[in-house]
Fold these 2 entries.
Entry 1:
Amino acid sequence: MSVLVVRGLTKKYAGFLLDGVSFELRPGRTMGLIGKNGAGKTTTLKSLLNLVKPDAGQVLMFGKDFYQNEQDCKQQIGVVFGGIDFYRHKRLSEITNVTKRFYKEWDEQAYQRYMKQFSLVPNKRVNELSSGMKVKYMVALALSHNAKLLIFDEPTSGLDPVARDDLLVLFRQLVKGGERSILYSTHITSDLEKCADDITYIKDGRVLASADKGEFVRAFQHLRSPGEAEDLSLEEIMIRTERRTYDV
Amino acid sequence: MFSLLHKELRLAAHPNLFIFTLLGALVIVPAYPYGMVFLFGCLGPFVTFTYGRETNDLYFTALLPVSKADVVKSKLLMVVLAQMAQVLISIPFAFLRVGLLPEGNPAGIEANLAYYGFGFMIYAVFNFIFLTEFFRTAYKPGIAFLWAMIPAVIGVLAMEVLIHVPSLAWLDSVAPQDLRRQLPILLVGMLIYAAAMPAAYRVSATRFEKVDL
């Protein structure tokens, strides 16, 4: 059974249309949601989480209609929006003490273990953490309530290469056991070369392709220039697909 | 709901909400326009909602396993809790004042039953407008506060003006026979408050449901 099935997700804004986005995420897989800035990645994530009210579409999470079972489904997910700070002046321990009350499956021992593994100090305030550590804290919260689906929106944006690599190693570990899945939106496609199993490419609000990474890459090989022997990277696929010419 | 209210008080509430709540004690000040107490009771929620916007509180809350309607309910309960605490804190000081300073308040209305009745009405009008306007967008507390403060200030001014009408002098009294005459004002005020909050919840929840975060 798929962890997440998105069908025909549509949201209309003045000047932008998220047009019938559909994809499917299986257990133990990491799906990279790629597209240039403004393509509709964040709108897709927000719409499927009901943070943004979609005009049409269906979201099945863990086999249930998400919009009908929002609270149940949210018990099993963890969401990390890169670049958004929550309660900057609060200590991690205060945020945790409040957050854990909402989750039926909160595991305090696991939480303590993750905090230690990620070198997070409970007495530190959010504004004292680096961007990478903030992501790790949110991941620690998600893992401590046994989240089966992790949704990341640009989690590595603004991080240095070492911090990015550190997080990517962590993300690979998270899905290794096959129990968790990750939906990972980013425009840093090199991250996905390292950790994604599936790719969904959104262009101008529409899904251009959604497939297993190998299959996805093969589907875009027609973009190779004559004489190019090697497979195109995700970055090259995106660049060549989005490339515009200017008649100036 | 208890978890959400706990979150409101521990994470979302600005420290000034607690300070403004404590200002219920101002009714002990010998000469002070006590109507200001209720305006502080309106200022506290505004500061907290503005702080919430800066700390991405609604965003964080919306990601928790709660419904959008519950988010509205918890915010509304926090406001009610702060205002009721402010009233409760002020009551012992109102009694103390009568005992310690029997000559009355030269700067405005006495802290009597009519005062509390008007106070509930001022809170009710402010809350209804502030909450319903805020949840129209969920990120513009300033505009909501501005619209809500206009009738609240007019209410306070009206209360302070009314006591200067000779035939309404009983509104500014703590004599037992005058307190009996003021009792209906208190009851009406409480009823208006009790009716306004569920109405504010219904309108706010409907509006917030349509808000894109």
Note: Residues 2-209 of chain B form one domain.
Entry 2:
Amino acid sequence: MKIPRTPSQTVGPFFAFALMTRPMVVAADAAGAIRIEGRVLDGAGEPVPDGLVEIWGPDGDGRYTGSAGWGRSDTGPDGGYAFTTVRPGAVSEPDGCVQAPHLSVLCFARGLLKPVLTRIYFPDESEANAADPLLHALSDDERATLVAEPAGPGGYRFDIRLQGDDQTVFFTTPASGL
Amino acid sequence: MSTRAEELQRVDDDERATRDADPAYFTPEYVGTRLRAPRKPLLLLPERLSELSGPAFGTDDVRASDSDLTQQHDGEPIGERIIVSGRVLGSDGRPVRSALIEIWQANAAGRYHHQVDQHPAPLDPNFTGGGRVLTDDEGGYRFITIKPGAYPWRNHDNAWRPAHIHLSVFGSAFTERLVTQMYFPGDPLFAYDPIYQSVRDPAARERMISTFDLASTKPEWALAYHFDVVLGGTLATPLENA
């Protein structure tokens, strides 16, 4: 017996005074710490200065625990967000499938009536990426939108393009309505 | 390690929104969606640990005072004090325990405590308008706040948002994350609001409207509204009854 879901509505432009942020998922000098930064851009290539980005990832061994792998960053005037988090490990699924190291990402903003869901994969994991069943099912152009670019030691750049020819690949799940 | 190509179903968001509780990303009556809504088909993600898991929050993340928005300053805020309570449930009807709910809202005059909000209505030095709470073992939650005012926005000529409280809810799965808006019964602005109207199914729209809750009022002190939140069940059959 299913009861019907509550619909999603936009986060609007005025959340910053109320929603806590957590850009430092781990300290910058923690073992395995990486920095991920990027911009959220609209269909005209303009920055989204009033967005909210959340990440969710496993620890270095691929385990999801507590709220340890959760981060939240609002976007600045240039649409920029940034996280310091732990480099995620590959995730072994109960059915034996292994997922390449990745972070799950939700982005909320004024003008988004529901969040967009995507994933960040890593450019220096080419072997694991090549074996990842999800990446394998994408076209080359689609896959390219999900792989971060190197940005200095321990740093990565991942832009979220909401709309346009180079739109980031966004996912939905069976019941979430995303 | 074997490479197994998974077929990813491509989902047309507009078509889905005709059957789903949620609005379509692209809802041009809400002008803000025109350049921000993804226009390519969504890929249906196989449910994997990444999305079936989600952050678990605890009592360290909230203080008891966070759920009373009228007690966050030295003085009492202006406006109609209200109690908002309800439950967070999964789509199987089971309570979602220890779910983090964050709320934010305009003050009684319809002004947000935010520098970008330039509506010429007064700020209230005794009201910020943000709160948080964890649900209890029955999925229950309760806030004390001030009834928010309606406010104008520039979506179209003479556009006004119906009074609402924003809610952000964490379920047990990352993909159960829900941000919604709770409205108040009988608001004359519903018919003119493209955000409320972005939900296509009238019955689904009504699930965003709180109900007057006489039993929870406190005589001589505050009226009360009830609002249950139902999150997506992550184990549901794909798109069935969506």
Note: The radius of gyration of chain A is 16 Å.
